Protein backbone atom coordinates (compact mmCIF):
# COMPACT_ATOMS: atom_id res chain seq x y z
CA UNK A 1 0.00 0.00 0.00
CA UNK A 2 1.37 3.39 -0.96
CA UNK A 3 1.52 6.06 1.72
CA UNK A 4 1.07 9.74 0.88
CA UNK A 5 4.16 11.86 1.32
CA UNK A 6 3.90 15.50 2.35
CA UNK A 7 6.14 18.23 1.03
CA UNK A 8 7.45 20.91 3.36
CA UNK A 9 7.74 24.34 1.78
CA UNK A 10 8.65 27.73 3.23
CA UNK A 11 4.91 28.53 3.10
CA UNK A 12 3.51 25.32 4.63
CA UNK A 13 2.79 21.65 4.10
CA UNK A 14 1.53 20.27 0.78
CA UNK A 15 -0.30 16.93 0.63
CA UNK A 16 -0.34 14.84 -2.58
CA UNK A 17 -4.11 15.34 -2.90
CA UNK A 18 -3.56 19.06 -3.50
CA UNK A 19 -4.33 20.19 0.04
CA UNK A 20 -2.05 22.85 1.51
CA UNK A 21 -1.82 23.91 5.13
CA UNK A 22 -0.01 27.23 5.42
CA UNK A 23 2.36 27.77 8.35
CA UNK A 24 0.41 30.94 9.17
CA UNK A 25 -2.60 28.70 9.91
CA UNK A 26 -0.63 26.41 12.25
CA UNK A 27 -0.74 27.33 15.93
CA UNK A 28 1.36 24.45 17.35
CA UNK A 29 3.33 21.38 16.31
CA UNK A 30 3.56 18.28 18.49
CA UNK A 31 5.38 15.00 17.85
CA UNK A 32 4.05 11.86 19.45
CA UNK A 33 2.52 8.48 18.88
CA UNK A 34 -0.85 7.21 17.79
CA UNK A 35 -2.04 3.77 18.79
CA UNK A 36 -4.55 1.97 16.60
CA UNK A 37 -6.35 -1.28 17.29
CA UNK A 38 -7.04 -3.68 14.46
CA UNK A 39 -8.55 -7.16 14.50
CA UNK A 40 -6.14 -9.90 13.50
CA UNK A 41 -7.00 -13.00 11.50
CA UNK A 42 -7.19 -15.03 14.72
CA UNK A 43 -9.92 -12.75 16.03
CA UNK A 44 -7.70 -11.05 18.61
CA UNK A 45 -7.06 -7.33 18.59
CA UNK A 46 -3.61 -6.14 17.60
CA UNK A 47 -2.20 -2.75 18.56
CA UNK A 48 -0.04 -0.79 16.16
CA UNK A 49 1.95 2.25 17.22
CA UNK A 50 2.68 4.94 14.64
CA UNK A 51 4.94 7.95 15.02
CA UNK A 52 3.07 11.12 14.09
CA UNK A 53 3.42 14.87 14.06
CA UNK A 54 0.25 16.80 14.81
CA UNK A 55 -0.25 20.25 13.31
CA UNK A 56 -2.83 22.21 15.31
CA UNK A 57 -4.76 24.87 13.42
CA UNK A 58 -8.10 26.60 13.39
CA UNK A 59 -10.42 26.21 16.33
CA UNK A 60 -9.14 22.99 17.87
CA UNK A 61 -8.57 21.25 14.53
CA UNK A 62 -5.51 19.14 13.84
CA UNK A 63 -3.84 17.46 10.90
CA UNK A 64 -1.64 14.43 11.43
CA UNK A 65 1.43 13.46 9.45
CA UNK A 66 2.43 9.84 9.99
CA UNK A 67 6.21 9.73 10.10
CA UNK A 68 6.64 6.02 10.90
CA UNK A 69 7.68 5.20 7.34
CA UNK A 70 9.74 8.31 6.61
CA UNK A 71 12.86 7.45 4.63
CA UNK A 72 14.98 9.58 6.98
CA UNK A 73 13.41 7.96 10.04
CA UNK A 74 10.47 9.09 12.14
CA UNK A 75 12.39 11.23 14.64
CA UNK A 76 14.31 13.05 11.93
CA UNK A 77 11.06 13.67 10.04
CA UNK A 78 9.35 14.99 13.19
CA UNK A 79 12.36 17.26 13.83
CA UNK A 80 12.33 18.53 10.25
CA UNK A 81 8.62 19.43 10.46
CA UNK A 82 9.13 21.21 13.81
CA UNK A 83 12.12 23.12 12.41
CA UNK A 84 10.17 24.22 9.31
CA UNK A 85 7.40 25.51 11.59
CA UNK A 86 9.93 27.34 13.78
CA UNK A 87 11.59 28.92 10.73
CA UNK A 88 8.20 30.19 9.55
CA UNK A 89 7.85 32.11 12.83
CA UNK A 90 11.16 33.97 12.49
CA UNK A 91 10.96 37.55 11.24
CA UNK A 92 12.03 37.91 7.63
Explain the overall architecture.
Helix content is 17%, strand content 45%. The protein has one helix spanning 74-89, and strands at 7-8, 12-14, 20-22, 26-39, 45-57, 61-66. The strands form two sheets. It has a three-stranded antiparallel beta sheet with strand order 1-2-3. Strands 4-5-6 form a three-stranded antiparallel beta sheet, covered by helices on one side. The longest helix has 16 residues, at 74-89.
Briefly characterize the structure.
This protein is an alpha+beta fold and 92 residues long.
Question: What topology emerges from the helices and strands here?
Answer:
Blueprint: E1 7-8, E2 12-14, E3 20-22, E4 26-39, E5 45-57, E6 61-66, H1 74-89
Antiparallel strand pairs: 1-2, 2-3, 4-5, 5-6
Amino acid sequence: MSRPIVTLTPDGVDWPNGRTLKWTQVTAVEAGQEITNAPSQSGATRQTVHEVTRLFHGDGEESKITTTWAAIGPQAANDRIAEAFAQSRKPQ
